[in-house]
Write a structure and sequence with these properties.
Blueprint lengths: L3 E4 L4 H6 L1 H10 L4 E3 L1 E2 L15 H4 L2 E2 L1 H14 L2 E2 L2 E2 L8 H15 L3 E4 L6 H18 L5 E5 L15 H9 L5 E4 H6 L4 H7 L4 E6 L25 H8 L9 E3 L10 H17 L8 E4 H11 L3 H10 L2 E7 H4 L3 H10 L3 E8 L11 H11 L3 E5 L9 H19 L5 E5 L10 H8 L6 E5 L10 H8 L3 E6 L1 E3 L7 E2 L5 E5 L8 H11 L5 E3 L7 H19 L3
Parallel strand pairs: 1-2, 1-11, 2-5, 3-4, 6-7, 7-8, 8-9, 9-10, 10-11, 12-13, 12-22, 13-14, 14-15, 15-16, 16-17, 17-18, 18-22
Antiparallel strand pairs: 19-21, 20-21
């Protein structure tokens, strides 16, 4: 199942009493992440005479506290999924936004959330302006600010035709995504399932806040109940969540208080148990599978069939997208988009090749990003080229970094994710440490994790996954064999590598799939089979294996 985070607001009193004991209790209950609050520099909320209750100060973390807490939290199995940022406590909005960028660079936390609780058209317009101002500072750095609703945003406009939150979404024009608090949606008079379905493309995170069935007549502070026991349609919400492009740990139990006369930690434990048990009864999960376009063309060539017939055949195998080399379709984009639409297949991502060490100002990427934006394609893999040995190496590496920064800055406001991948050639991004060098220096850059390439330098792919997990936004599924007819790569030590159907080779891909499912990965598994001697058989076996393995681990 999707990894579940816990909002810390409801356990603030417990944290004040026993901070690390409470964190351990959350981990023992099955939570895999937490969501605290941001404390800005010189934050008046932390002053002794601040109106903020003392218990809440335990969940207000500045950058020093985050750095202090992260290692111990991770040792417990807890990540920081996102952080609430209270901009009402700061007088310098732009400085606060830049501080969030600093936190992201220092800690890897890339998602922040705020609530402004507008209750009129004027305050709604002010909130939209504030969100856009902050968002435009954050996005070039690969950092995002989500809006978290309460119940008052579901008040109606003066004309009665739409809610204030719908007006807010209209004003922000898709530039601001939501952390939807489903309990407050229900308390505000709307159906959370209908709201999620209507706005699913703008939702990045979901708060499960179950409320009692008699919430209409209960006091606001007494409505909170354990997840799965109240009026919220939790099962339907969780089913919908699997279809959304949520952030990692994008589902969160956010119980603001214990059920009267009950313990909040026991309530949260019950909620996690409910989600785990409910997940086991859900319909079988079908993974999103994609095939590299060059592999599709090789299938058509080997089987002597048309491209249209090849597209229909992969669809019959449960593959519902293709992963496209943009240079291969650049001259025929209209033809390919029409052909794929007719076959009811999507483009899961694009990849493109450059030589930034030699041509650092190459701006062809703008065309690729613009095409992706137009077609609603969320991922572009950039292969930035090689570097020279000797004295020029450092200069070439810096040229690649600067070029990738330009691409990420161009793509961010267009809602396109730029990625690099680990390579299997003599390139400076083959090992986990080499990849981390680039990822840590390029704001907004993410990783397309290629399962079959770390073997080039004998890097353990499972260890590489654990090191780089927080950067992974896309997956190339590739397996390897040590014998065959024609090698498709040669290791650094000269050993030849051959193509294998996914799950049929020497790599521990079942463990990679397990970790992906445990993390809540819900994007495409891109099947890569360059060098397959019998492409049709390799595609069929790969798709069957992936469907079987994802289903096996879907309840993690």
């Amino acid at each position: 199942m999707l990894k579940v985070s816990c909002g810390l607001y409801g356990v603030a009193e417990k944290l004040e009493q026993d901070f690390w004991g409470t964190m351990q209790a959350l981990a023992d209950s099955g939570f895999t992440a937490v969501e605290p609050l941001v404390a800005f520099k010189n934050d008046p909320a932390l002053l002794p005479d601040s109106p903020v209750p003392t218990r809440l100060k335990t969940i207000l973390w500045n950058i020093e506290k985050i750095r202090e807490f992260q290692p111990r939290l991770r040792a417990m199995g807890l990540e920081i999924s996102s952080m609430h940022a209270g901009f009402l406590f700061t007088n310098d909005l732009e400085a606060a936004a830049h501080e969030l960028v600093e936190i992201a660079k220092e800690t890897g936390i890339r998602t922040f959330v705020t609530s402004l609780t507008f209750d009129s058209e004027k305050s709604c317009e002010e909130a939209a302006e504030l969100m856009l101002t902050v968002q435009r500072i954050l996005k070039p750095h690969g950092v995002e600010l989500l809006y978290h609703n309460h119940e008052m945003e579901f008040g109606r406009m003066d004309n009665g035709e739409q809610t204030l939150l719908e007006y807010f979404l209209k004003l922000t024009k898709g530039e601001v995504r939501l952390q939807v608090d489903t309990g407050w949606v229900l308390y505000g008079g709307e159906n959370p399932v209908v709201f999620l379905e209507k706005h699913k493309d703008l939702i990045a995170s979901i708060h499960l806040k179950d409320i009692c069935k008699a919430f209409h007549s209960a006091a606001r502070d007494d409505i909170f109940v354990p997840t799965g026991t109240g009026a919220l349609q939790t099962d339907r919400i969780m089913t919908l969540a699997k279809t959304m492009n949520l952030i990692p740990y994008g589902v969160m139990i956010d119980q603001d208080g214990a059920k009267p006369r009950e313990d909040i930690l026991e309530n949260l434990r019950y909620g996690m148990n409910y989600l785990n048990e409910s997940e086991k009864t859900q319909l079988k999960i079908q993974p999103k599978l994609s095939l590299f376009l060059p592999n599709l063309l090789e299938l058509a060539n080997q089987e002597q069939i048309t491209i249209e017939e090849a597209l229909q055949w992969i669809k019959s195998q449960g593959i519902n997208a293709v992963y496209v080399d943009y240079p291969g379709i650049r001259e025929d984009t209209d033809m390919w988009t029409k052909l794929l639409a007719q076959s009811e297949l999507k483009i899961s991502g694009l990849f493109d090749f450059y030589d930034f060490a030699q041509n650092p100002t190459d701006d062809r990427f703008q065309e690729t990003v613009d095409f992706a934006q137009k077609q609603g394609i969320g991922h572009i893999l950039i292969v930035p080229g090689n570097v020279r040995d000797g004295a020029e190496r450092e200069q070439d590496l810096l040229r690649i970094v600067e070029a990738m920064k330009r691409i990420c800055a161009y793509a961010a406001p267009r809602h396109v994710q730029i990625e690099m991948e680990d390579s299997d050639g003599n390139l400076p991004y083959c090992s986990d440490e080499e990849m981390l060098w680039f990822l840590s220096r390029i704001p907004g850059l993410q990783l397309c994790f290629d399962t079959g390439n770390f073997i080039y330098k004998d890097t353990d792919v499972t260890q590489a996954y654990k090191m780089l997990e927080s950067y992974i936004t896309n997956i190339h599924m590739k397996d390897r064999a040590l014998d065959g007819k024609t090698p498709n790569s040669v290791k650094e030590n000269g050993e030849k590598l051959y193509c294998a159907a996914i799950g049929k080779g020497i790599l521990p891909l079942a463990e990679i799939v397990r970790m992906l499912c445990q993390r809540g990965y819900n994007d495409y598994y891109n099947i890569e089979l360059f060098g397959a001697e019998h492409m049709k058989e390799a595609i069929k076996d790969s798709a069957e294996w992936l469907k079987q393995e994802v289903q096996k681990y879907a309840n993690l």
